[in-house]
Design a protein that fits this description.
- It is built from 24 helices and twelve strands.
- The protein is an alpha+beta fold and about 525 residues long.
- Helix 12 packs parallel to helix 17, helix 22 crosses helix 23 and helix 22 runs antiparallel to helix 24.
- About 5% of the residues have low confidence.
Length: about 525
């Protein structure tokens, strides 16, 4: 081999090695940039691509500092807060769902879960977020002279994300988006950036079934830190991301906060009010959260029956938080002083000024007590003119005696008159102690239909109504009874329902059917339809 050829090969090998090294070094950066571009492009439409250019800054990826934190908040009235914090060899993820009663919600509820994220995945999302943060949108044409527009669907969730290098540092990115705004005929760039950031964090969160249930109490230190830190600005200057963090922190702190949290809530409210009072509905909502947290913390750490009675005697509010707080105070009183709470409930139910909503609460409150003197009091409401009160009295009777014929009749009549009653009346659901009226009470009554005086047509109407509700054990009983009653008009619908049960494990679990039972039920329906065809 001649020297020139040898030198050429050596040079090519060196260049190849250098190129391979550069590719290897650029690989993670290219991956983070690709993820950033994909997250942004997901929220750009054709008009935005045609009229706006996105310029991407060029810089090296970094190793996220230990303690780096990504926080995501999603929701509207009901909120899910997720924090992912890098700690050494792994990123720890924690999520909590904080639900509140509203039009489509049930009682106030808190559930927490935990999960782990690989440091590599965390670093990739972190660096992609850095690139999205640094990107700039450049308008390619002259903007239209318009005032802009904004579209927000009813009850659309807020999507908030906050990124910071450590818990004690100010965030390097915080944003929130809800709906879609346009300015000059194209989507607002800050909203696109916010949506992209939200998606990058969301990609790190595994499905619920891959998470582990956690104790909500673990959130107490973080919630307290957020409330203590708060924002030293007047209320009117808080932006929406700051409000969301404070609002969710206050809501959770009322449930799990320690005694020092009470002073922190008071101090935060004082800062929020200075120098002027609330000026909008959003301001009132945030101050309401302070009041709710303060009420719960006060009664949790120093229960006072006089204070609790005053809260329960105050005029009701249409807001869901008022219903939640009343239920919480009643539970707290019953746990702290059962005898005193019984005296209070008896006095309230005998008060002529107590309206239907308060009577339902009292009937629920009296149901767990075994005092025989309460039986005639509760039974006297089985003939109340309001359907909800009659049903609540029936439920309270059935908690004591599952075969109370008079109560069974009232409950079944209520189910027939208002099929969704047991889904929307939280007090009634609690009194029944089944989480939801799932058909067991109606089945118990109609299993003795002849003795209780229910005609066949009335039974058919009741069970047909149950078929129109989301699948639950009551749907199972409906199928069985409609087959027994030979209601041939529903056979096609029964076949659809049972086929789904037999094929879908979650549906089977929802209605409490094993795989064999679901398959057997489907077979009986097919056999019934075959007999009908003959």
């Amino acid at each position: 081999m001649s020297p020139p050829v040898f030198l050429l090969r050596v040079l090519l090998l060196l260049l190849g090695g250098l190129l391979a090294t550069q590719v290897a070094l650029a690989g993670p950066e290219a991956a983070s940039e690709a993820a950033a571009r994909a997250a942004v492009e997901k929220h750009r439409d054709d008009a935005h691509r045609e009229r706006v250019r996105v310029d991407w800054a060029q810089f090296d990826d970094e190793v996220p500092p230990d303690g780096a934190e990504m926080t995501r908040i999603k929701g509207y009235i009901d909120y899910e807060v997720t924090r992912i914090v890098l700690r050494g060899a792994k990123a720890e993820g924690r999520s909590v769902f904080m639900g509140r009663k509203w039009f489509y919600g049930s009682d106030e509820r808190f559930t927490a879960r935990s999960f782990d994220v690989s440091p590599e995945a965390f670093a990739a999302a972190w660096n992609a977020a850095r690139r999205v943060e640094a990107a700039e949108a450049v308008r390619l044409d002259a903007p239209e002279r318009t005032n802009g527009s904004m579209m927000v669907a009813t009850h659309a969730p807020y999507r908030c994300v906050r990124l910071r290098s450590a818990a004690d540092l100010a965030p390097w990115h915080v944003s929130v988006c809800r709906g879609a705004s346009k300015r000059g005929g194209v989507r607002v760039w800050d909203e696109i950036r916010s949506e992209a950031m939200f998606d990058l964090v969301t990609e790190l969160i595994p499905p619920t079934e891959r998470c582990t249930s956690a104790d909500f109490d673990e959130w107490a230190p973080w919630l307290l830190a957020e409330v203590v830190r708060g924002e030293p600005e007047p209320l009117a200057k808080l932006n929406r991301p700051q409000r969301l963090v404070i609002e969710t922190s206050l809501r959770g702190l009322g449930e799990v906060g320690t005694k020092p949290a009470l002073a922190a809530v008071d101090a935060l409210e004082a800062r929020l009010r200075a120098p002027t009072g609330p000026t909008s509905a959003a301001d009132d909502d945030l101050l309401d959260e302070c009041r709710l947290a303060r009420t719960k913390l006060r009664l949790r750490h120093a229960f006072d029956a006089t204070d609790a009675a005053a809260l329960l005697s105050a005029p009701g509010d249409a807001a869901g938080w008022d219903t939640d707080l009343r239920a919480w105070v009643r539970r707290r009183w019953r746990a702290a002083d059962p005898a005193g709470f019984l005296t209070y409930a008896r006095g309230r139910i005998a008060d002529p000024a107590s309206g239907p909503e308060r009577l339902v609460e009292c009937l629920e409150d009296l149901a767990p007590y075994a005092d025989p003197e309460l039986v005639p009091i509760v039974r006297s409401f089985l003939s109340h003119p309001r359907l909800g009160v009659r049903a609540a009295a029936a439920a309270a009777c059935l908690v004591r005696d599952r075969k109370d014929d008079a109560a069974l009749v009232v409950l079944v009549r209520a189910q027939l008159a208002q099929p969704r009653l047991f889904e929307t009346d939280d007090a009634l659901r609690t009194a029944i102690r089944s989480g939801v009226e799932d058909g067991r009470w109606v089945h118990l009554a109609l299993a003795s239909a002849d003795r209780l005086g229910f005609e066949r047509d009335e039974q058919v109407r009741i069970w047909r109504a149950m078929l129109d509700r989301p699948p639950h054990r009551g749907t199972h009983w409906a199928v069985r009874h409609l087959l027994h009653l030979e209601d041939r008009a529903t056979y096609a619908k029964l076949e659809t329902v049972t086929a789904r049960w037999a094929a879908e494990a979650p549906a089977r679990e929802t209605v409490g059917l094993s795989e064999d039972a679901a398959a057997s039920m489907a077979w009986f329906v097919r056999a019934a339809r075959a007999r009908k065809a003959e």
